[in-house]
Amino acid sequence: MSSPHPALARLAPAEAGGRLTLGLELPLDNDWGPSRQDADRAAGRPFGVPDLAEHTRLARLADRLGFAALWLRDVPLHDPAHFGDAGSVFETFTHLGHLAAVTEHVVLGTAAVVLPLREPLLVAKAAATVDVLSGGRMLLGVASGDRPVEYPLFGRDFPDRGTAFREGVETLRAAWRQGPLELARAGLGAERGLEVLPRTVDPAGIAIAVAGGAQQTPEWIAEHADASLDYPRDLGALRVKTQEWRRLTGDGGKPYLTPMVLNLREDPGAAPRPVRLGLSTGSRALVDHLERMSALGVAHVSFNLRPNDRPVDELLHELAEDVLPHFRTSTARTTQPESRRLQ
């Protein structure tokens, strides 16, 4: 893309002066917290399946408080024996359509759609639909997947998922390109006159963030992705990854995005300690840690709040009051031309 898609520009706004923005990974629940786990065991509820009764209200609250993005995972099949976590539970694009209707400002991202398990043309159409319904707020994170049991059930080959991923990204780009659809690999030329509708808000298409390595070389990701959506790392390992990303992308302005598991302690002055994939910390040390991440070149961090014992509402308000002001979300709203808006 010659210029950033509006959703990607919102996550890494030029007016922020290189400072990172902050988002949230869904589900917005505290089902990994110790008290909640005790209550779920006593009630016979399975681990890893969040309570979604308040998901709409909490998404609206996050939007109103000024978080930059809401991220959804793609877990086609719940595997309690080997993975345990059901992720966001709802089907990804159905859920995104709902979120597009109940929020106004947050970027709506996937972290990440397992592209080799899906038909790429249908992914292109679904993502474009969310993009239009949300006024240009869609950001498509894609991955190659890591659960071998799913692939034969979808008629896919697990060892070949890297090739399927590359072909899938190529199909997405072709589907969003202006003009008739061309897919040489499928023998389809422009003269046939097929199109994928609706057209995306940005004529250049939807920004694609590649999650992890996706069975590709770093050079391929740097060339074909609009952003890197990489795994949580300690600051030392993060420095190595962000330096590599900058070396590969040069001055192309492609942002580095990462999630973080966050156990936000009640004491703002609580010292940080590492937990799996993130931190347990008070708000003051969290700000310091995020400042360091920003200095390393991280453009956006999304918090996973599930390990907390405190109510999610309380956590969102504390983050909005004590942390967000240090990392201002762009005030620019993603908009689309009058002629492209749904009536």
TrEMBL record:
UniProt keyword terms in alphabetical order: Flavoprotein, FMN, Monooxygenase, Oxidoreductase
Name of the protein described by the UniProt record: LLM class flavin-dependent oxidoreductase
Pfam families membership: Bac_luciferase
GO molecular function, one term: monooxygenase activity
SUPFAM superfamilies membership: Bacterial luciferase-like
Record InterPro entries: Diverse_substr_monoxygenases (IPR051260), Luciferase-like_dom (IPR011251), Luciferase-like_sf (IPR036661), Luciferase-type_oxidoreductase (IPR020020)
Domain Luciferase-like span(s) in chain numbering: 35-247
Source organism: Streptomyces populi
Highest taxon above the source species: Bacteria
